[in-house]
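Hey, quick one: can you model this chain's 3D structure?
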Amino acid sequence: MKVLVVIGHQPPGSFNHAIAETAVEELGTAGHEVVYHDLYAEGFDPILPADEIPTDAQLDPVVRRHCDEVLAADGYVIVHPNWWGMPPAILKGWIDRVIRQGTMYQFGPDGIVQHLAGRRALVVTTSNTPREDELQLYGDPLENLWKNCIFGMVGVEEFTRRNFESIIMSSPEQREGWLEEVRQLVREIFPPA
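Sure thing. Here's the predicted structure for all 193 residues.
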């Protein structure tokens, strides 16, 4: 399989980076081809210019490459922190520019044509709010965003999301256990070739 891994978090050495690196390592061990993007390290421009909105727009070469990689992938691993119930702006901008109408989906006479049907996705998020508090206060906006609004729109039905919390209150032992859980999830969702 070819798996695209995308992380949207700034500081190298963060737990989000440890999650992404663990996923990349496990995918490689399973014999999969990995395409990896650290959006902050690469300086991905999240701003969607007006001339890029039309479905037939001439795309920036970096955006075109990302689109081609999404289309060529059999699966996706997305890693990011929960910021105000949303992904960081750089990742939201990546979604706006790359998971685009006319490329990943389009509207046809019989409804939505989904160009990523049959693929699978794992989204791993982190937060500082304890899970029970978050669910009681806010529900789970990231689950809805990724499962229904993004991957559901483009046809990805085999979807798994795991949130690790509370990062700020976690111990090194908890984090190591969470990384082992990431390994297990990757093995289950993207079994060895």
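One thing worth noting: The chain has a mean pLDDT of 95.
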